[in-house]
Amino acid sequence: MELQNNIRKFRFENGEMSQQDLADQIGVTRMTIYSIEKGKYVPSTVLALKMAAVFGIPVEELFWLEDSPKPAKEAGS
Amino acid sequence: MIDPKTKRTNLILFILAALAAVYTTAVYAILQTTLSPALDPLPEWLFNLGNTLAFSFLLIAIYHLYLLFRTLRSLPNTRNPFWYAAMLVGVILSGIFILADITQLGDIGKEYLYWDVSGAWFMLYGSMFGHLLFMVWGFLTVRSLPAAEETFFQQMRAGNDVLFQVLNNIGVFCGLLGFIGIAASNWATIPERFRSGAMLIFSLLAVLPWASLLAYWAIKNRKASLGKWLDEKQMVDTAKGALVSMAVVMPLLAVLTLVSVLSPGLSQMPYLLAALFFLQLLMFSVSVLRQE
């Protein structure tokens, strides 16, 4: 089972936030955001929670495991 | 792109340094053809001509320092860390070799009376060509650099990804240079009594660009705790890099230790340890970059 994410979608829904902007807000580098979006890196729990807090959403809407039911918002979009 | 004032400064300093390099080459040619044991005493104009080289070396050194400052200032915004790292290594080493040129000139001044110094002159011409090449490369790179968005001392953030990539790219260059250089020295015709000194100087020069940037990073982040120097992904990548380099180098080190115990007369040991250091630097840097 692999970790999937909606980061790019929520970035664009939040004023077309750039990877660098998101990285600055949570205290990591742009390359880390890029790697997470591409599925190359699994973030720590703290980092995942920080990202969810930036978008004001539960972390389960931002990250889920493949083969698990996707969040209702993602499934309906 | 960089502002017009920076472009103008870059152009002026480059022209002065390039003219200085051409002038220095011309003076070399005059000195080489004029200096001979039969010329005694040396005419005063020859001394004066040689002394003017101090000014031309100063101009060349100033431009090297300017290139170093300008590229470091734009470091956070560069889009091509590999090219950037190559240029930094070249400028630093070229700058160091200015001192070697000055020393070489002094040696020629003492030795021309006793033996043929044409080989030393050849090295000086080659070195000046190298300086000019890196100055041209630096000039073109500075022209294409992104503008520095913050002041020099505001730039570095903990875990800055460009600095991390450039540092590891430089690690690859320095690791390769050091490892290949020490391996190749086995076939070089260096007199045995000079070998250890030559290897030490070469090793220091080969590691200098990487160590300089590492020191720069340390100074910039001196007020932050060590855990803040890298973000979590960089920490993970660094740990993986350390694991890979350890996995490669430790077995080699164990084998070398065993061989040195079984063959106490193994005289290559100091150079092999230096070669292992550069191999470890190379393995570590490549492994970290592969995670990016």
Topology summary:
The complex is a heterodimer of chains A (77) and B (292).
Chain A lengths: L2 E3 L1 H7 L5 H8 L3 H8 L7 H11 L3 H4 E3 L6 H5 L1
Antiparallel strand pairs in A: 1-2
Helix pairs in contact in A: 2-3
Chain B lengths: L3 H31 L9 H30 L7 H31 L6 H26 L17 H24 L7 H29 L11 H31 L6 H23 L1
Helix pairs in contact in B: 1-2, 1-4, 2-3, 2-4, 3-4, 3-5, 3-6, 5-6, 5-8, 6-8, 7-8
Describe the structure concisely:
With 77 residues, chain A is mainly alpha-helical.
Q: Can you offer a commentary on this structure?
A:
The complex is a heterodimer of chains A (77) and B (292). Chain A has six helices and two strands; from the N terminus they run βαααααβα. With 77 residues, chain A is mainly alpha-helical. Chain A starts with a strand and ends with a helix. By secondary structure, chain B is an all-alpha fold. Chain B has eight helices and no strands. The longest helix of chain B has 31 residues, at 4-34. The A-B interface holds A 27-32, 35, 41, 43-44, 47 and B 158-161, 164-165, 231-234, 236, 292.
Terminal Cα separation of chain B, in Å? Answer: 26 Å
Number of helices, counting only DSSP H or I runs of 4 residues or more of chain A: 6
In percent, how helical is the residue content of chain B? Answer: over 70%
Which structural category do the helix and sheet elements of chain A fall into? mainly alpha
Q: Give the strand order of the largest sheet of chain A, numbering strands 1, 2, ... along the chain.
A: 1-2
- Proportion of residues in extended strands of chain B: under 5%
